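re: that complex we talked abt at group meeting.

here r the seqs, copy pasted straight from the sheet so there may be weird spacing, ignore it
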Amino acid sequence: MSHEAARLRLKTWICAAVVVLSNVFGNFFLKKGMPADLPTPWSYVTVLFHPLVTLGVVLLILWMMSRMALLSWADLSYVLPVTSIGYALVALVGWLFLAERIPAKRWAGIVLIVAGVALVSLGTAPRTHKPEAGR
Amino acid sequence: MKWVYIAIVVAATTVGEVMQAAGMRRNGEIHDFRPSALGRALAMLSRNIFVIGSVVAMAVSFFAYLGLLTIAELSFAVPVTAITYVLETILAKYILKEHVNRLRWAGASLVICGVALVSL
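got the structure back, here u go
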């Protein structure tokens, strides 16, 4: 692997980790901070100032920005499967921190997702197009 | 009605994410992660027609998704949105001109089956 390819791969993995973790924990805190029901339209606004909900929203903003940064150099057909490891992590976080049960079918799905992610992230380069001229 | 919402969510998400990828590609690789440089990059992106289009499409997708959730279960809504994986990979090949090799097709297919199993 050339120096440039190694640099790009390391940068891609770090950024992809930020994308995935900010999404998983953003949704987790959102779910944790959300009250059982939102009775009035105004409560949709005030709920945003609940500390856990605010943290969730901040993490989801980080998710959006890191995903855009990742797409500035990595292919969409690379980013889509690689960041879908989040589906597996969400299930694991529910199992570990929310005491949710994971049935056998869901474990099988998690294994398939991890296999797909490994195939794309280890087997293909993040970028298949030439960088724009002048860079 | 349910399938109308699904069609809107899938179409808007697909268009939004492909436009986002096209816009970021046109912007070029982000090298500098210091806050001031990121602020300048954001200012540039807010004038990027593809990025603006993607934000509009994702807003449409978000509200159609909320509408879908009022009449469908979450465990149905999430796997259904995995359809966008197939569409976006096809568009990545033909519109974004990415080289989607066999490994990527295989990986995307495994992920789609896995997402369906996890959420069904």
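couple things i noticed - The interface with chain B takes residues 65, 67-69, 71-73, 75-81, 84, 87-88, 91, 105-106, 108-117, 119-120, 123-124, 128-129, 131-132, 135 of chain A (CB under 8 Å). The mean pLDDT of chain A is 85.
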